[in-house]
Amino acid sequence: MAEVLLISGSPRQEGNTVLVMEKCAGKIRDLGLTAEIVSLAGKKIDACIACRKCVGKGVCVLDDELNSIAEKVRKADGFLVGAPVYFGTARGDVMNLLQRIGMLSYNGDKFLSWKVGGPIAINRRGGATATIQEMLMFFFINEMIVPGSTYWNILFGKAPGEALEDEEGVRTAERFAENVAKLILKIQK
Exposure of 1 by Cβ count < 10 A (0-12 exposed, 13-18 middle, 19+ buried)? Predict the structure, then answer.
């Protein structure tokens, strides 16, 4: 059975980002795929130190929680990343995660190539399009397939739960998740 891994990049276990990822996971499951949400809340993900010790090995030498998440990404058919916007960009540990997973794939067996997925940004006010663009760089340089939706994958909300009040944003994110699942199913035919 096809599987989609969803990352909640929020430090809050019950924040807007994980709530949006749960909505997306529900749509993916409705189409018969499995969906697992991994929260970065309480996890330590260091920045890449460009040591190049991952080359040809498929694992990172830094001792944190990246390798276990990277293994889940390796096995998944789809990969969605939800990031809260901090000061106009994705949280640092979200980008740490993406950059290090990208290095493992790029310097190894290219396991990200042809996976389906993309980014979702959750913000209070501004910086969401910059965050989407920043994260899209990861998906595109790793030869991933990013389907569209009815609008940009952006939701607005500050206090936990407020993003779910953004009806258009929720519809857009859910449609994006459906499109990811449908595309995976078409590729696997």
Answer: exposed
What is the distance, to the nearest Å, from the Cα of residue 179 to the centroid of all Cα atoms in its chain?
15
| Residue-wise burial string across 146-169, b where 16 or more C-beta atoms lie within 10 A, e elsewhere | bbebeebbbbbbeebebbbebeeb
Residues 6+ apart with CB under 8 A from 64: 43, 44, 45, 46
The residues pairing with 89 across neighbouring beta strands, listed in sequence order, are 86
Quote the CA–CA distance of 29 and 179 in Å, as a whole number: 12
Q: Which residues contact 159 (CB under 8 A, 6 or more apart)?
A: none
C-alpha to C-alpha distance for 118 and 180, rounded to whole angstroms: 8
Angle, CA 6 vertex, CA 121 and CA 81 arms, to 5°: 30
Q: How far apart are CA 176 and CA 28, in angstroms?
A: 10
Q: For residue 122, count CB atoms less than 10 angstroms from its CB and return exposed for 0-12, middle for 13-18, buried for 19 or more.
A: buried
CATH T-level assignment (fold) for domain 3-188 = Rossmann fold (3.40.50)
pTM of the predicted protein model: 0.96
Residues 147 and 158: their CA atoms lie apart, in Å, by: 27
Residues 94-124: tens digit of each pLDDT: 999 999 999 999 999 999 999 999 999 999 9
Q: Domain-by-domain residue ranges, the chain?
A: 3-188
DSSP designation for 62: S
